[in-house]
Amino acid sequence: MSENKIEIKKLNLEGLKILQDIYEDNFILRKEIKVSDISMPEILEDSNFTESISSKVVIEKDKDFANRFEVAKYLHKKLNNVLNDDEFDDQGLWAWLALLYFEKLARQDTGFRRIEHYIPISSGSSGHNKIIPNGFDPTISLEYRHCIKGPYNMYDLLGEKSKFLTSKRLDSMGDPTENFASKKWLTTHKIIFEALHDIFADENGFFKPGKFGKHCPKTNPKSLGNAFRSFLVTDGLLFTHNFHKMKKSSELIEIMGKEFEDSA
């Protein structure tokens, strides 16, 4: 195997605990310590802290990515239809991948973000959490914030169209992910995401700038057709329309109203 290749593994419980301590301790000290100040543990191929997955999958260690959409697309090609359900839900797999590309995915000139950005945290009732962050047990899944599993899940749902949810920066999650992917009711209706893509994606596939802001048309007329308005409108339409019967995003955009048709 070439020096730039590595076999994908998953962290075991001991490996996860090592990272948990690093992420949580340095999040507390985030105002004094930058990410670049910390040396991450070299445990990616240490059998004391890792386990193999059911199929041998080899990826590049030092691969250039422009953004997290590209990370998701690359790994989806490698892992789709390869992982079994237990492996897909395993915190250790995604924490291992995040550690592999940590220097690229974690902004180096700021403090650490919360642990769910590096180790995926599911809802407490899911049974998927080998470790639970100190101080909170989430009632909803925070996987959408994970630097790899979040965009991977969106790529699995939307393919190329998922690009509009990702930041142009590789080391940033971006507002569209926090505001769209965080809403569980949205992820159960693919047609909504397809419509939102057609409304808000620019010519390069990224989210159009200036589309987040206050959503009260009476006090801010420019909020018509913006992202927050789209949440309110689609949520209301769910009470009167069967989205599962819609075949084309244009059907949904039409009933969302002229404010969104003009943007699409």
Walk me through what this model shows.
The strands form two sheets. This protein has a two-stranded antiparallel sheet with strand order 1-4. A two-stranded antiparallel sheet has the order 2-3. The longest helix has 16 residues, at 13-28. The protein folds into two domains: 1-182, no CATH class; 184-264, no CATH class. The chain has helices at 13-28, 68-79, 85-88, 91-100, 102-105, 149-158, 175-181, 184-187, 190-200, 227-237, 249-256, 258-261, and strands at 5-7, 9-11, 50-52, 58-60. It is globular and about 60 Å long. The chain has twelve helices and four strands, in the order ββαββααααααααααα. It has 264 residues and is mostly helical.
The count of domains is 2
* Main beta-sheet annotation: 2 strands, antiparallel
Could you tell me the strand content as a percent range? under 5%
CA-to-CA gap between the ends? Answer: 48 Å
Overall pLDDT score? 92
Task: Output the number of helix runs.
Answer: 12
User: How many β-strands, per DSSP?
Assistant: 4
Helices and strands, in N-to-C order?
EEHEEHHHHHHHHHHH
**C-alpha geometry:** globular
Class based on secondary structure composition and strand pairing: mainly alpha
Low-confidence stretches: none
What level of helicity do the residues show? 25-40%
Name the strands of the widest sheet in spatial order: 1-4
Radius of gyration: 20 Å
